[in-house]
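sry for the spam today, last one i promise. C-alpha cells for design, 99 residues
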C-alpha cells in the first residue's frame, strides 16, 4: 500500500500482511520513504509514520483483509517494529470496495 505524489509528505509506502498475532487484524511490517527525484526507496527512516498508518485501516477493509461493518469498523493493526497494536476506527457507512 502506498501514497504517491511529488512531495516528501505523500511519497510513502507500507507493507501490509495478514496478522501474526491473534489480537490483530493486519500486520504493518515496514514503512519506507520513496524518492520522487530518483529510483530510490529509503527503509531507514522513521518506522511508523502517522499519515501512512492512517491509511492502513481503509486499505485492510478495501483489500478484504477486514470485513466492513457499518457504521464504524475497528481495525487492529500490529506494528511489527514495536510489537504494539494501533486501533483504527474507520467510518464505513455505505462502504463499497474501491478498484
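last one done:
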Amino acid at each position: 500500500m502506498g501514497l504517491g505524489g511529488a512531495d516528501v509528505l505523500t511519497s510513502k509506502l507500507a507493507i501490509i500482511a495478514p496478522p501474526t498475532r491473534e489480537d490483530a487484524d493486519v500486520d504493518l511490517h515496514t514503512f519506507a520513504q520513496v524518492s520522487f527525484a530518483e529510483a530510490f526507496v529509503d527503509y531507514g527512516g522513521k518506522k511508523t509514520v502517522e499519515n501512512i498508518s492512517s491509511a492502513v485501516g481503509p486499505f485492510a477493509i478495501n483489500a478484504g483483509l477486514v470485513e466492513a461493518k457499518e457504521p464504524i469498523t475497528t481495525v487492529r493493526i500490529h506494528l511489527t517494529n514495536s510489537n504494539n497494536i494501533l486501533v483504527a476506527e474507520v467510518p464505513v457507512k455505505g462502504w463499497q470496495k474501491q478498484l
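Residues 6 and 16 are 23 Å apart (CA to CA). ok im logging off now
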